[in-house]
Predict the structure of Stress up-regulated Nod 19 protein.
Amino acid sequence: MWFATKDMVISLVILLLVLVTPCSSAFWSTHNKIKTAIHYSPATELEPGSVSNKFYYDIEFPRGHVALKGVTAEVVDEAGNPVPLHQTYLHHWGLFRYYESKSKLSTDTRYDPHRVLHMSDSFPNSHILVRNIGICQGIILGQYYGIGSETRGTNTDIPDPFGLEIGNPAQVPEGYEEKWCDLYNVTVNEYGIPLSPSYEGGLYCCYDQTQCRLRKGFHGPKRTLYLRYTVKWIDWDEYVVPVKIYVLDVTDTVKTLDTSNIASSDHDCRVEYKVDPCNSESKKDNECVDVKRTSLPMQKGGYVVYGVAHQHSGGIGSTLYGQDGRVICTSIPNYGSGDEAGNESGYIVGMTTCYPKPGSVKIFDGEKLTMESNYSSTTRSRTGVMGLFYLLVAEQLPHEHRT
Ligand SMILES: *[C@@H]1O[C@H](CO)[C@@H](O)[C@H](O)[C@H]1NC(C)=O
Ligand SMILES: *[C@@H]1O[C@H](CO)[C@@H](O)[C@H](O)[C@H]1NC(C)=O
Ligand SMILES: *[C@@H]1O[C@H](CO)[C@@H](O)[C@H](O)[C@H]1NC(C)=O
């Protein structure tokens, strides 16, 4: 009996291999090679204490109908050397996808390639932002990629045979073309005097060309810096299983309880929040943990292919739970303990990621997820912290995709 069962299992495995191999990894490794391109943003000149928050339109990015497989970025100097966070703090970088009107291009020279626009210019009319699938209101958290100080130590690779479909001509409205823009926000610090990880600031305190307060009498050289970003992609073909991007925000409150009919406007993502100082309530085993939770109804579900959280200094981890309490993904910050770029002491230099075996973690249509973001709280409050979850979800599995 036992042997019979074993035989059955073996033949089943062989059968599966035969069926699955032609359209998954084996096909991929031989036919669809990952391409890599390294690009630099335009230079930004910074003096000690200055803040740069720039929007660059029409950045260099793969053209044509392709599947993105990963994007990484870091701040480098003129020689291409990585700049550590205690010299230049990379608060955020983000990549946005948009359609630009072709007719507008010929008459309006305001949007030259690489022209720098400030956040306050907002999105021009001739451009349509193509946001991710959700779930915040309006254009809030609509980026395709967005990460902060953890950029050097966080894996963004999308496993085979999944990919993020871009540049499909059939999706671009008549008279428009697809382009990408990049926002990056850095603060140059007084060299050698780290911007405190418990730095009190917020989204609305620093904007482009503002100046942080420096030690009296401090003067330092100007520096020329770049955001170097690396894009990995493959040509699109029918074997690629598309994934959708969700960016969940722990500050989001959703008004409606009807999961079949949630409008984007029902969401209220605040992006940032404040961690209150430690009090007796939050004190547990002599440790003070601030736990923030929100409940988020998902209109459409799917299979989780990748998950990662985003937190700021002080963050100690974040978990996304299903309606029944099962863990969908837990992502924990790694703090640096040295001096060199990628290991800066006291900063979040990476986030752990989730790569569930495809098909093993499913979000159901209409399921209400709970997101939890934990920060260690101290005697002082922390302002402007974030609790995001970035999820890649496939609505089909590879074998379903090709039938
Ligand atoms: C830019 O960075 C500063 C500090 O580094 C931060 O306080 C601010 O929120 C950032 N701005 C945006 C729009 O992300
Ligand atoms: C967050 O805190 C809650 C409550 O103490 C705990 O149950 C959970 O495991 C914590 N999650 C992470 C990722 O630290
Ligand atoms: C970070 O630096 C510390 C101190 O030099 C060292 O012990 C540690 O191994 C470094 N970590 C990594 C990931 O390089």
Observations:
- The chain is about 10% helix and 40% strand.
- The longest strand covers residues 88-101.
- Confidence is low (pLDDT under 50) at residues 1-30, 105-122, 190-212.
